[in-house]
Amino acid sequence: xxxxxxxxxxxxxxxxxxxxxxxxxxxxxxxxxxxxxxxxxxxxxxxxxxxxxxxxxxxxxxxxxxxxxxxxxxxxxxxxxxxxxxxxxxxxxxxxxxxxxxxxxxxxxxxxxxxxxxxxxxxxxxxxx
Length: 129
Fold this sequence. Notes:
Blueprint: E1 2-3, H1 14-20, H2 22-34, E2 43-47, H3 54-61, E3 65-66, H4 67-71, E4 78-82, E5 85-89, E6 92-96, E7 100-107, E8 118-124
Parallel strand pairs: 1-2
Antiparallel strand pairs: 2-6, 3-6, 4-5, 7-8
Helix pairs in contact: 2-3
């Protein structure tokens, strides 16, 4: 389970944070994945704070895919109400490797958090045959 750096600068700016925090999230996911056992199936879930970006691209380069992106591409998992209306994005992911097979994923549209619950059903790939 991960919670990567939000798209906020050290000063709290969303605008500059959008352009400066991608590399930080990639560095965080690199450090995280170094600690995983390569012999075990891998599932990395949580708040990636990016719909696409360096952390997601790094995982894709390692063969991990977004289960939510396959079943519901772009479906919002995050929402924030502003004076201009609601802003949404898919910032939460279930990234899995080839040893797992997603059967379904979905977003539960409820609760008071800015992030919506994401549910996934995955099995070992060898169990699916």
